[in-house]
Input
Amino acid sequence: MRSSNPVFSRRGFSRGAGYADFNAPPQAGGPAAAYAGTNPYAGANPYATETPQYAPQYTPQTRPMTMDDVVTRTGLTLGTVIAGATVGWLFLTGHLAFALGAGLAATVLGFVQSFKRKPVPALILGYAALEGVFLGALSGFINDLPKMNGAPMQAVLGTMAVFVAMLVAYKTRIVRVTERFTRFVMIAALGFVLLSLVNLLFMVFGGGDGLGFRSGGLGIVFGIVGVVLGALFLAMDFKQVEDGVAYGAPREESWLAAFGLTTTLVWIYWEMLRLISILRD
Output
């Protein structure tokens, strides 16, 4: 199953020492098959086999990733975002040209990493730093606007609340990531992005608020939809990480998990900040 997260949209995690598409059926005797006999998710996965062929032979370079690896890399990546945001807030608030430049550079690095066969930590941390600068500078700018003081902190707390709520919902199986679930979210996300782009074009060429998706009652509804979509992305990212650990993806791919989770949390924060700004206006 593919995640809707842009980082996972091109391919899934690798298995064992190879770099085959994670969504393809496992080869006989490969790491996925070897773990199938003890995999607690084997019954839910149509590719899992009931009898392991033989134990995988891992070298130090191909040790399978663990949940601790994912947590460590995600913490490092998010820490880099926070450090960049601090720099942007303190030194670039009001300098929107520099902020937009950092955001554009972060987008380029994100796309480059998405099309890389292997995760590149330098690209991921570079993306995190530049994305942090962009968010910090714009958050500082918004914080200085009338009636907006404290809005960024509320958005941070809201993002944390969404993350915890979705993690609990996923772990308790209140939210189950299925093929139908994934298709629905993918279609909804595509529609959301297209409407956002159309609204941006109307704003650029027509002035004002475009189609009104970022103000008033319609803006509130659109903001709530954006936050909900981000939460659903999180559920699919959790599923991707869970499957990667269960199938013995190489340790280095924990960077890919960290990248995906970071991009989703950035999405949620930005949509939360926009929603709070509309409610305060």
Q: What stands out?
A: Residues 145 and 277 are 10 Å apart (CA to CA). The two ends are 41 Å apart (CA to CA). Helices lie at 31-36, 67-91, 96-114, 121-143, 151-171, 179-206, 216-246, 254-280.
